[in-house]
Amino acid sequence: MSKPSLPQGTRDFDAATVRKRNYIFDTIKKVFELYGFQPLETPAMENLDTLMGKYGEEGDKLIFKILNNGLDNEQKAGKVKAGFEKILEGKSSKEITERALRYDLTIPFARYVAMQYNQLALPFKRYQLQPVWRADRPQKGRYREFYQCDADVVGSRALLNELELAAIYSTVFKKLNLPVEIRINNRKILTALAALCGGAEKMIDIAIAIDKLDKIGIEKVQEELKQRGLSDTQVSLIRQFLEIGGSNTAIIAALKPLFADNATGLEGIGELEYIISSAGLPELKIDVTLARGLNYYTGTIFEVKAVGVQMGSIGGGGRYDDLTGLFGVPDVPGVGISFGVDRIYDVLTELDRFPADVYSGTKLLFFNLGTAEAQKSFELMQQLRAKGVAAELFHETAKFDKQFRYADKKGIPFIAILGSKELEAGEIVIKNLQTGDQQQVTFDDLGNYIFDRPVQ
Questions:
Q1: Which secondary-structure segment (H or E) carries 146?
Q2: Do strands 334-340 and 315-319 pair parallel, antiparallel, or not at all (unpaired)?
Q3: Which CATH number characterizes residue 424's domain?
Q4: pLDDT above 70 for 380
Q5: Which residues of 240-266 are buried (b: 16+ CB within 10 A; e: fewer)?
Q6: Does the residue 416 lie in any domain?
């Protein structure tokens, strides 16, 4: 038998990791709830036609497709052969696959809204914390299976929603004790840039290329733009645009004359100006190089970067004013953000920002020193559990060193020793394994004992 292994880009999570991840999840969920968002879950897989064509050329390549099953051998052979012939011609094939794992939470959410639109109270504010899958090349901070935590509002065009989503980002990362920069741009400005470069139909090509700027650099971006059919003059104009920098005020001042004759561009600039001035968040920075290469964004776009860490974005999102139109329900405005929990976890680990109490599991281990002693220990343990103290009784009578090793491996900070003498005296020994201190505690006083792990 071959050695067991995991699919590339996936991971197991031990107890300590799960607790730290839950700390992130719980922090985000509490803030979502504070802002009036309600939870939603959708299936792990969607129909393939729900997903395809929604993420742009690059995104579609990363969708994990699920092979069809349930056919008998004769049916399967004929359909698979026909399907592969289509694939060799560069076409999709329902004979091979009709379903796929979700690539993100936004498109499934749009599908849900389209299906439930007449039953929803608008604006509809939902949050969703579930795994997604992408056939990407695994590397630091990039996995093939990972969690997203999304918050979206549909049914409202008010920029108040952008203000609240920016505030949610700020609040969550302050609670996580993680310094960040919240970058913001507007796709209307990029649409205007495309118009200056010959037409709005060049928008997607420009956005996809610009979205790679951090990864490949300006020279490679220029090469890609030329490969996508833009002239040297147009590429030079885009480079001039990408080099706009400085304070938020300076960037706004530089953008206005560039798009003075383009109403769409001026509208995008005005929206940026309003959000920046109204949010009052020092970590909110305009970044004209922010493009987010997904097709569905139409207005404000966000991206969050951790300060002082070499890591990709740990959050992102934006406005998508006709996403449900993809599913037959047009003109439903929406805006949303997403938290990259796995990258946030990696950053908090690298910066050592997890609080000490996030590691806590079992607080107290009762040693098993005999039948009568274990029976009393179980009774006392249940009393502690009723008070919210996580406790265990070692599963069998064993030597002290074996029970000590168990406590050490699980990181249990306190042990309780109840031998025959203690049983007779109505007392129990509580020992702090980190400090070595121990106390005799009566059975009646045990429930009042404070089991706190000292902060290291």
A1: strand 145-154
A2: antiparallel
A3: 3.40.50.800
A4: yes
A5: ebbebeeebeebbebbeebbeebebbb
A6: yes
How far is residue 18 from each of residues 12, 14, 92, 345, measured CA to CA in Å?
10, 6, 39, 10
Whether pTM > 0.85 for this model: the answer is no
Neighbours of 9 (CB within 10 A): 17
Question: What is the residue whose two structure tokens read 């008070």?
Answer: 387
What one-character-per-residue DSSP string does 230-260 give? --HHHHHHHHHHHT--SSHHHHHHHHHHHTT
Q: In this predicted model, which residue has the larger pLDDT, 214 or 115?
A: 115
Are 335 and 386 part of one and the same domain? no
CA–CA dist 257, 252 (Å, integer)? 9
Distance from C-alpha of 409 to C-alpha of 394, rounded to nearest angstrom:
13
299 and 236 co-located in one domain: yes
What pLDDT sits at residue 137? Answer: 86
Angle between helices 232-242 and 187-196 (to 10 degrees): 150
320: amino acid identity, one letter: Y
Tell me how crowded residue 340 is: count the other CB atoms within 10 A of its CB. 23
Question: Which candidate, 155, 114, 202, places its Cα nearest to that of 334?
Answer: 155
Cα–Cα distances in angstroms (integers) from residue 25 to residues 137, 172, 310, 320, 341, in the given order: 25, 10, 23, 25, 8
Cβ atoms of 385 and 403 within 8 Å: the answer is no
Nearest to 84 by CA among 95, 68, 70, 100: 95
